[in-house]
Amino acid sequence: MDDRKKDQSIQSHANFDGDSATGDRTQIRQDQQNQQPPQIDPSLADAQAVAASLGVDPNTGLSQAEAERRLAQYGPNELASAPPVPKWKKFLAQFKDPLVYLLLAATGISLIAWFIEKANAAPGAEGGEILPFDAIVIVLILIVNAVLGYIQESKAEEAVEALSQMTAPQTNVLRDGKIARINTVDVVPGDMVVLGEGDSIPADGRLLAAASLRVAEASLTGESVPVGKNVDTLAEAKALGDRANMVFNGTSVTQGTGRAIVTSTGMRTQVGKIADLLQATDDDDSPLQKEMNYVSKILGIAVCIIAAVVLVALALTEGFNDIHDVIDSLLLSVSLAVAAVPEGLAAILTVVLALGVRRMAEHHAIVKKLHSVETLGSASVICSDKTGTLTRNEMTVERVVTPSGEVQLTGTGYAPEGRMIAIPDAALSGSAASAAQVEAVATLAVGSLANDGELRENTGAGDGSAASDITWEAVGDPTEVSLIVAARKVKADRKYANYTRVGEIPFTSDRKRMAVVAQDNADAGRLTVFAKGAPDVLLGYCSRIAVNGAVRPMTQGDRQQILAAVERLSAEAYRTLGQAYRPLGTASLAAVPGVRINAAGHVADIADQSDVLESDLIWVGMVGIIDPPRTEVRDSVAEAHRAGIRTVMITGDHPLTAARIASDLGIIETDGDGSSVGSADLSSKVLTGVQLDELPDEQAFDKATREISVYARVAPEHKLKIVESLQRQGNIVAMTGDGVNDAPAVKTADIGVAMGITGTEVTKQSAKMILADDNFSTIVEAVREGRGIFDNIRKFLRYLLSSNVGEVFTVFGGVMLAGFLGITQPGSQGVTVPLLATQLLWINLLTDAAPALAMGVDPSTDDVMARKPRKLTDRVIDGQMWGDIIFIGIIMAAVTLIGMDMHLAGGLFTDRSVDAIGHDAQMTEVRTMGFTILVFAQMLNALCSRSHDQSVFVGLFANKWLWGAIALSTLLQLAVVYVPFLNTAFGTVPLSAGAWVECLGLAMIVLVASELRKCVLRAMHRR
User: Fold this and answer.
1) Is 738 tagged catalytic?
2) Where is pLDDT greater, at 27 or 810?
3) For every residue of 252-306, which 3-state class applies, written as one string?
4) Whether the predicted model's global pTM rises above the 0.70 cut
5) Which of 199, 328, 385, 664 is catalytic?
C-alpha cells in the first residue's frame, strides 16, 4: 500500500468509537474537525478486526515514523480548550459595568461643556479651564479601578494555573515491537497501550488482552468500585459503565494488566464528549453583578429625572438667555451625575472582593472570579458528588461477621489506625464476643493473604517521627487494600507472617472470587489455600465452617445465617467479601489429590485448576466494606443546614450506598426517634437516573428535585437537569465535583466548585472556585466568608449611597432654593451651584473611599450562619436600606444647606458681616463651609451605617481600620482647606475656629438623627 492509500485507510478508521463528538471546539485542528463519524462501535467488533481497521499489527504496534505521521495528522492527545482571551480584552472587560457607563456619560457631558466654553470664549479671554479637569479625574479613577480588577483576576488565574502544573503524564506503548514510555499527549489512534496497576489510561481503547484487569472509573461514571474488564466482544450496545471490553481516557488501572488499541484520542474520547457539553452552557452574571446593574439603573434614572426637573424648572423660571446659561446647565448636570454616582464604588467593591479572595485562598479555596466570592455566600443549595467529595474515596472495612458474632472496626481511610469493638446492638455473651473477635482476626488475616494490593507508607517533609509526617498510599484495588489496612489495625497480618505465596488463581468477573496458595515456612513449607470473593459464590465451594476455634461440617442453617447477614449488610450499603481457607496438608502441589501434571512433569498452571484447589473450603467469615464519609463533612452539612442551605447528593453509585452515606451525613433526615432511614424507605428518599427519565414533564421534574435530596445512578445529563431545575425554583446553586462527569453541571451552576487534588482538568476549567484541599468543609467556610463579604458590601453601599443622596439633595436643594437661601442675589441671572463638581469628586473619591474600604473588612455584628440565605428576588438594597439612605441623605442636605445659609447675607439666617467682602467671596467661604460640613457628616455616617437598627455605640471601636480611615479623611479635609494650591484647585478658603465648631456641631446632627431613628426601629421590632 503506498503512502497516499495508507493515509486514506488510516483516516477512514481513526478515532474508532460508537458516538460522535458534539460541538465545535475552536482549538481542535482542522483535520481533526473533519473526521468522518465512525460507523461501528468497537465494543461490538472483534479486537483483531479493530486492529486491522486501524492499520496496526497488535504484536509490534506502530512504527515510530507512522506514529509521528498520525500525530501530525490527528493532533495531540489532549482536550481542546477555548482560545485564551487576549490581555487587552481582559483589561477592557473591566469597563463593562453600568456604574462605569454612568461615569462615562458624565465625562462626555463635562467634555461637551468644556468644548462649548472654549469655542465661545471671547478673543483674548482665558476661556475657562485650560484642560477638562473634571473629565480627566473621572477617567483616571476608572483606569485605576480597571487595573485593580485586572491584577486581581490575573492573580487568581495564576493560582489556578499553578494547580494544573503537575508532572506531565506518561504512558507505556508498543512501538516498533518494543515497549516505549512516551508523553500521553503523543498517543495516537492505533497505538498499542500497555497497562499495569496504577497506570492512568491515556485514551479510549479496545482491549486486546486482559489479566485480572480492574479499572477505577469513578471520575467518568461515578462508580466507586473498580470495574472488571475483559476482551469479550459485546453482543449488543451497552451503557458506558457496562462496556467491559473498553477502557476510557481519565480512568486508572487498580489491578491486573492488559493491552488496548487506542480507538479515540483527544476530544473524541468519552471525556472529550463531556467537555463538549460545556459549550452548551454560558457564563451568567453573579447575583451581586445583577444587583449592581439594578442599582446603577436606579441611579441613572434618578439622575436623569432630577436633572430634567431642575433644567425644566430653570427654563420656566429664568430661561436660557445665552451660551453661558447652557454651559452652566450642562455643568449642573455633571454635578448632579457626580453627586449621584459613587465614583469609588467600583474600585472599592473590587478591593473588598479581592481581599475576600485572598482570605479564601488562605483557607484553601481559590476563587477564579471576584464576584463569585459573594455568590457562594448567597447559595441556597449545594449539590455535591459523593465519591471523593462527601466520602474519602478510600474503601474501609467497618464490619466483620463471623460464625460466632459480629464486630466493628474503628478508623477510616488507609491509615492503619483503629481497633476492634463490639457491635452496640449485638447481644453477645462474654465468651461469644471473645470468640467473634478471634474469628475476626482470622478472617482479616485470610483477606490480607488472598490479596494483590499494597499499602505504602510515605514520609513527608518532616523527619518522619511525627504522625503528621506520614501518609499512606493504596496501590492496587482499593477494596483489597482495605483488607490489608483492617488486618494491620488488629495485627492480623502477623498471624500468617510466615506464609509465602507460591501461586494464584486470579479474580475474574465471571468467577467473582480469587485464591492464592501459600506455604508456611514455619511448618515445613506446608501449603494452604486462602480465598476471598462474593459471599454467595464462595459459600458454594465451602463444605466446612470454623466456629470458636474448631472446624465442623457446614449445615444448611449455617448457609442461611450467612446469606441473611449478607443481605442485611448489603441493605446498609456495605460491599461484602467472604473469606475461606483450606489446608492442603502437604508441601508439594503435586501431592494434592486431583492436581494435574503437565507433559514436562510439572504442576500445570493452577489458574486452570480452581476446581481442585477451591473445593472443600473452610468458611471463616466475611467483611463489610464501604467508602466512608469524610469525618468533618457531617458537621459541615449540619452547619449548612443551620444556615438554611440544602445539601443535595448526586452520584453515579448504587442507591443503597448513596442512601447510607446520605443518612450518615445528615443529608437524609432521620426518623423521629433518631434512627437512620432504612432500605425500605429508599423509594421515597432516593431517585435514580432511570426514575428521573420516567418523569413526564418539567413540572414533575421540579417537584421531584424540590422534595428529594439524593440521586443515584445518574448520568452527566441528569446532573445538568437537576441543577437547572433547582435554579428554576429560585435557588442559587453551588455544585461541587471532581470527575469529568461533573463538569457540565459545575459550569451551569451559579458557582461551580472543583476539587484541586483529585479534580480533572475539565472540571477545574469549568469551575468558578477550586478547593485546593478537596475538603467539603472548606465550602462551608467559604459560605461564611461570602456572607460576611455580602454584609460588608451592604454596609458600605448604605454609607456611600446615603452620602451621595445627601450630595444630590444638597445640589438640588441649593439650586432650587438658591434665592431663598441667599446663594443667588436678587436680579442675578444663570445658575449658581452650591458645591463645585471638583469638591464633590474630592468627597466621593478620596474622603469617602477610605471609610468605605475599612467597612469592607468590618467584623460581623451577628452570626452570619444563623440566618437563611437570601433569595434571588431579594435586593442588596432593599426597602429598609432605601429608607436609611433617603433619611440620612435628607438630614445631610438639610444641615449642609443650613450651614451655608448661616454665612450668607440673605436667607433664613442672615449674616450681614459678610456683605463687605462681596458675593463671590461669600460663595467661596460658603462652599468651603458646606463642603466641610458634608465631609464630617459623612464620616459620622460611616459609623452609623454599620447596622440598620443597632446603635452606633455597640462595637464602636471594633473596627480599628474604620477609625484610621476617619482620621485619614480628616487630614485630607484639613489639607484641602489650608494648603494654598489645593485652595485654588478646589475653590476653598481657610476657615476660622468658630467655623470649625459650627461644621462639627451641624455634622453631629446626622449621628443624633440616626440614633433616634434606630431607637424607633428597635421599639417597633420588639412589638
Assistant:
1) no
2) 810
3) EEEEEEEEEEEEECHHHCHHHHHHHHHHHCCCCCCHHHHHHHHHHHHHHHHHHHH
4) no
5) 385
